[in-house]
Write a structure and sequence with these properties.
It contains 12 helices and 18 strands. The chain is of the alpha/beta class and 465 residues long. The chain folds into 2 domains: 304 residues, Alpha-Beta Barrel (TIM Barrel), CATH 3.20.20; 124 residues, no CATH class. The protein has an 8-stranded parallel β-sheet. It has a 3-stranded antiparallel β-sheet with strand order 9-13-12, with no helix packed on it. The protein has a 3-stranded antiparallel β-sheet with strand order 14-18-17. Helix 3 links the parallel strand 5 and strand 6. Helix 2 packs parallel to helix 3 and helix 5 runs parallel beside helix 6. The mean pLDDT is 94.
């Protein structure tokens, strides 16, 4: 195994091992601080981070606002408070070692306000910002305002080129690294483009090599690239280390730090990770962001799949083959279906899926009355956790709506991620995971259900395993 030499990252010589930031309350100050204490880059999540009461218990996100705008403002305020608290915890845990980054999602509601609030309240505690889930053009400008480094997350050389040309070339001195997140193998939201086949993963090497070639054109030959998504152990990536084609490379670990003593996820979640088999993690496109996402297949995902399968097109006037009348809603408003679809609809109704909900694509999805009631309640209770939400039709811009119908084929992502992070039913909530999560079961490091500390995991990684 080749020696892993330190790189200059966020202003300090640091081991090029990065803890990936993971969504709502999953990467926190304790886990990231422990990682930084080992000399790497620890990353805490600035996405709706937890704050705590006097007894150390997480304070639930509660909303008193009477409308979405008011609840959106409450979400922002709570997120900033939680992010500052996690930064302080991480700083204390790190003992002044390594580097600490905050991770935000550009498509989260109030992303710029939340990021500025955290950086303002945690001055001197945070050394870098990682950001993906969209095209974060203003990331460099915000980071420069606080004199810290920025780490955009992209999935192609083309995406980085767009960011560089539009904004990043003005702030090149604070570009800490470019994070290449593999869109087929990473957990959470993925950057698959419309031209890429979700069923056919591509080799990351040519994609990263292309990114390095693009960066060299911009004078960034010595700026590190962080390989993220699908990294389990360094031994499998040894030919990337000190590779002149690729230049300086860091490795990001998102999935493995979930299974540590310091990881804040519930114990039952940790136990579930140890039981996963290959193929249990699936790519899907049900997220209200519109992005593909990677999660563990469970009843939550099956329900979403069922909704989309129980779907037919309709018209409001008899057109073409849509000649058969069908009544929907409490007012029994008439729409028109094809004859075969009318037969299918009658079958679903007889099976108990009696509620037909309209989608923005002029289709109907059939669900149970209980499911319909929950969908409507979740849409009504929207707190604006995204910049724009397909599920609730919220938009933080303009009039507060996307101008489209709410989409019942999706879900309230804030609700389910808060629930699973704080002890919710693993089978009935969204469980993000990278596609390598099945390897916990076979890796001898985790034999007999062993859960290591961050220190033990870090030291293991340095051996190559």
């Amino acid at each position: 195994m080749k020696a892993l030499n330190p790189l200059l990252l966020s202003g300090r010589e640091t081991l090029p091992l990065v803890e990936g930031g993971k969504g709502v309350a999953i990467s926190n100050g304790e886990s990231s601080g422990a990682w930084a204490a080992m000399g790497g880059i620890g990353t805490f999540s600035g996405v709706n981070a937890d704050s705590y009461d006097a007894d150390g218990h997480p304070i639930p996100y509660v909303y008193q606002g009477h409308n979405r705008r008011e609840r959106h403002q409450e979400l922002i305020e709570q997120s900033i408070r939680g992010g500052i608290e996690q930064a302080r915890i991480a700083h204390e845990m790190s003992n002044g070692q390594g580097r600490l980054h905050v991770n935000v999602l550009w498509e989260m509601g109030g992303a710029e306000i939340v990021l500025r609030g955290i950086l303002e309240g945690a001055k001197g505690l945070v050394h870098g910002v990682t950001c993906g889930a969209g095209m974060p053009y203003r990331l460099a400008e915000i980071s420069a305002r606080y004199s810290i480094y920025y780490y955009p997350i992209v999935s192609s050389a083309r995406a980085f080129r767009a960011l560089w040309k539009r904004a990043y070339h003005k702030f090149s001195d604070l570009l800490g690294a470019v994070v290449y997140e593999d869109p087929w193998r990473a957990g959470g939201h993925n950057g698959l483009s419309n031209s890429e086949n979700p069923e056919m993963p591509e080799d990351p090497y040519p994609r990263v090599r292309a990114m390095r070639e693009q960066m060299r054109e911009f004078g960034l030959g010595d700026t590190p690239i962080v390989m993220a998504g699908g990294v389990w152990c360094l031994r499998e990536w040894e030919d990337w280390i000190d590779n002149p084609e690729l230049g300086p490379i860091c490795f990001q670990f998102g999935t493995r730090p979930l299974l540590t003593k310091e990881s804040p996820i519930p114990e039952k979640w940790k136990r579930r990770l140890l039981q996963l088999s290959e193929g249990d993690v699936e790519l899907n496109r049900f997220s209200p962001t519109g992005f593909y996402s990677s999660c563990v297949g469970n009843a939550f995902l099956r329900d979403l799949q069922g909704r989309s399968e129980r779907q037919i097109a309709y018209t409001v006037e008899p057109v073409g083959e849509h000649q058969v009348a069908f009544s929907i809603g409490a007012r029994k408003k008439g729409v028109f279906l094809t004859a075969p679809d009318k037969t299918r609809a009658d079958g679903w109704v007889q099976a108990g899926y009696t509620e037909a909900l309209r989608t923005p694509d002029s289709t109907l999805v059939f669900v149970t009355p209980e499911n319909a009631k929950q969908i409507r309640a979740d849409q009504t209770g929207c707190m604006g956790c995204l910049s724009a939400c397909q599920f609730s039709n919220w938009s933080q811009e303009g009039t507060g709506t996307t101008g489209k119908k709410p989409d019942p084929r999706s879900y309230c992502i804030q609700k389910t991620l808060q629930a699973i992070a704080h002890g919710g039913d693993l089978n009935n909530e969204l469980m993000f995971a990278g596609h390598n999560a099945f390897r916990f079961k076979s890796d001898p490091f985790y034999a007999n259900g062993y859960v290591p500390t961050v220190r033990e995991l870090f030291e293991r990684l340095l051996t190559g395993d």
